[in-house]
Amino acid sequence: MEIPFDIGNISGPENARVAQPEALGRAIKNAKRPLLVVGSEILDDSLIEKAIAIGKKGIPIAATAHSMKGFVDAGYTENVHLTGLHELANNIESRDWMGFDKTGGYDLVAVLGGIYYSTSQFLIALKNFATDPIVRCISIDRYYHPAARMSSGNISRKHTDEFKKMLDSVIENI
Amino acid sequence: MEELNIAPSKIEIEALKNVVINIGGIEEEEEEWETMGPTPMPGIADLRNWDYKLLERYKPFYAPYCEMCCFCTFGKCDLTGGKKGACGLGMAAQQARFVTIACLIGCSAHTAHGRHLLRKVLKIVGDREINMGTGINIEAPLTRLITGIKPEKLSDFIPVLEYLEEQIAQLLDSTHTGQEGSNLDYESKAYHAGMLDSLGKEVADLIQIVAFDLPKGDPDAPLVEIGMGCVDESKPVILVIGHNVVPSVAVMDYMSDHGLDERIEVAGICCTAIDTTRYSQKAKIVGSIGRQLRFVRSGVADVIMVDEQCIRADILEQAKRIHAPLIATNDKALYGLVDRTNDSVDDIVAILTSGKEPGVVILDPVKAGEVAVRVVQITHEKRKELVNILTDEEFKEYVTMCQNCDANCIVACPQGLPIGEANKAAAKGDTAPLASLFDPCVGCGRCEQVCKKHIPIVDVILKASLPYVKSEKGMIRVGRGPVLDTEIRKVGAPLVLGTIPGIIAIVGCGNYPNGTKDVYRIAKEFAERKYIVVLTGCGAMDAALYRDKDGKTLYEKYPGDFDGGCVLNIGSCVSNAHIHGAAIKVAAIYARRNIRGNYAEIADYILNRVGACGVAWGAMSQKAASIASGVNRIGIPVVIGPHGWKYRRAYLGRKYVDEDWVVYDARDGSKVQIEPAPEHMLVAADTYQEAIPLIARLCFRPTDNSMGRQVKLTHYMDLSMKYLGVYPDDWHIFVRGEADLPLARKEEYLRILKEEHGWGIDLEAKKILSGPVRKMDVGFDATNLEELIKKNE
């Protein structure tokens, strides 16, 4: 059993299933309206390239924190939308919100590169309150997120190459 | 007590036998200084209507920190998946209940602090008159607003404290199992606790200002040194920690009376430090709460004296570790020590200097002050040979011992800092990665408790960062206290019209996502842009640690007036009541609104007109929860750092729901669709780069005039481009007409409005033909309260 990246972050009786990258990629692929939510840590270790690769697969990207600057610098803003993580969670929970493209809400949210603890709270908010209709959440981050439905396991920063390979595998399966 | 009405009549006293007559307090007829408003000393439900106005627009958003409830023996109850607990409470209400309890803890801390101060100072200085000087007529805006009382002497705060204590008890009662079941009503109660907190803070700060002659709104309050490097270790050092300044005042007085000012260092951590320097500029500030463990571990302190709040619960263990005696001076934090309050000073000094007891309780602040000064002179000599910082050899041994396992320390660290990698680099001779952890580390020590190799990680980081620590020397203007009425007269109009684009109130604790420098960056950015930047508590301290290229700190570079482009240290946590006070004074002085017992009207005024935004970037404690709730209830939004998500609740607007953004025009009662201003009441940002444009966005108000809106829009757009690389996607909704557009970029913005947002634009005439939510109306009298329409009729 995986432990939360912040060891005290055990919120309740149900915790995320640790999933292989192939399964995570397929979950994104099989969703009708998936959304990739990225945070400021994608500006480290060239992770933004992976986010862009996912964006190029047609998955819209919610750029939280100041990650937008990374997309601007990389010259990729095609389906990248500026938002705050708190605002985004509030919007996803709302039946009135019609998404970034104004055509409807999302049925799957994948997180990558956010600060661990705020992302964890983002996920737990959606787990408990984005229920009508249900929005499924997965983590493709280097952290195990127990509040997600499926999550990658913890991958230490000293194994960043391994993490990038994991992301490549996720991307291949989208 | 039932009221007994006795009709005027002749009473034959001689005829009475065996009757005891008790005469209660004789009420003096109060001067009718202002018409009493509708809600003096409001109870739990009296401001519920106002709370619901806020909650309808800024709906509570919950992110449970725990999905279970373990409050009673019915539980534990699993609240996930829409399940209710055994008592019938659901997830949302449980989160709101928890927030209410957190706010009550915070509110109790400030109120009890005020009560404690009053008891002590009435004994020490007597019942002093409240005279705030010629610049201040509204001496206690929150007290007037909430209770309807105009305090003239210190004892006038007694009924205010009685009101606070009764309300706290009533609110706490509501959190008992089997009572309130509505999350919205719990939110209203959390707001109530927040409002009480603001009142408790004002009472506490005014008591200490009056009792100890602290600065009364002095824009030119003196500068003092701050930082871990500013303490002279060659002298005996008394370290004071906490929030209640009375014992520290006694230390300064004893030193002064005995000619020891230059021979002993008094250095403080947290708000006691700020308040001690308000009393005597001989004292120094080590820094905020995040520096506590590191400074104690450095061994510089020869005596540690603690009072209340924000002290490490293991302070006795830490003090023992460095062989420094501990003096506990407040009954809220006794640490299992023997109460020596009634012992002679000579005996206590002997006990502490002999090491027979590691610390003592002394609840008489004057005695505690004398003991601290006498003990420190002896322990300093005894401790001279002690070395508390790791030696080079020890350091090397520890970092080499680390296996970079990443198994324990990194998952124990609240920041997830890469300690193992840094140790590995240090083992190879590069200490820079370890030193770089010093500032983002919050100084909790969880890492070293779980290290399999028992490496004292806090000490290792401290050793690696010693050159930085020694050079950490900033300057801070001592807490000036309230904003002057005369300053409000000057800035009232530009603030309400928007030409001073906002008040940025940086408050709160040191639980930052990435170190102290973020607070400096935020303050600097807004000061440069001519916002009014006010700071209190840990935020005020941490912003003082950095210097610009000319070697100046923010407090040296910018004036301390309450005006655009100024940076003010208002004071300690309790002083941030004066930030509420400034907003209330704008309503009272500039708009001539009656404030007495008139909370909802004044909060409505502030919400719609005063472009202020709180920033609690390192919010950590329950006090920060109550502070934010109090600020929110009075109509001021707050941005918190990412750790703030853990408070479980935010208040977020939904700008795409039109009906949420309708207010009345008080002139005729018509409903007006407005832009989302301010958009949120309580919202977190992940990074300072995200926070800065967000703060600017939350300074918009419906009543901005065109010049004001131009200024605010300019900053919002610039800041978004600077920190996020793009213009914000919602800027257009704040445009009411071409006059709102910044002149320098008017053509560019008109083109964007036409091409990207489909607005009707006459580019040649530079006119907006269609698109805005509403037109600018200079006479617009925005209000959320129906009763204010009637009043105008």
Automatic annotation (TrEMBL), chain A:
Superkingdom, natural source: Archaea
Entry's Gene Ontology BP terms: methanogenesis, from acetate
Alphabetized Gene3D superfamilies for the sequence: TPP-binding domain
Pfam families on file: CO_dh
TM region positions: none
Family annotation (InterPro entries): CdhB (IPR003704), DHS-like_NAD/FAD-binding_dom (IPR029035)
NCBIfam families per UniProt: cdhB
Name this polypeptide is given: Acetyl-CoA decarbonylase/synthase complex subunit epsilon
Species the sequence originates in: Candidatus Argoarchaeum ethanivorans
UniProtKB/TrEMBL annotation, chain B:
A GO molecular function held by the record: peroxidase activity
Sequence positions that bind CO: H110
Binding site for [Ni-4Fe-4S] cluster: H243, C271, C310, C509, C538, C573
Catalytic activity: CO + 2 oxidized [2Fe-2S]-[ferredoxin] + H2O = 2 reduced [2Fe-2S]-[ferredoxin] + CO2 + 2 H(+)
Binding locations of [4Fe-4S] cluster 4: C413, C441, C444, C447
Gene3D superfamilies: 1.20.1270.30, 3.40.50.2030
GO biological process: acetyl-CoA metabolic process; generation of precursor metabolites and energy; response to hydrogen peroxide
Keywords: 4Fe-4S, Iron, Iron-sulfur, Metal-binding, Nickel, Oxidoreductase, Repeat
Origin: domain of life: Archaea
Subunit structure: Heterotetramer of two alpha and two epsilon subunits. The ACDS complex is made up of alpha, epsilon, beta, gamma and delta subunits with a probable stoichiometry of (alpha(2)epsilon(2))(4)-beta(8)-(gamma(1)delta(1))(8).
Name of the featured protein: Acetyl-CoA decarbonylase/synthase complex subunit alpha
Gene that specifies this protein: cdhA
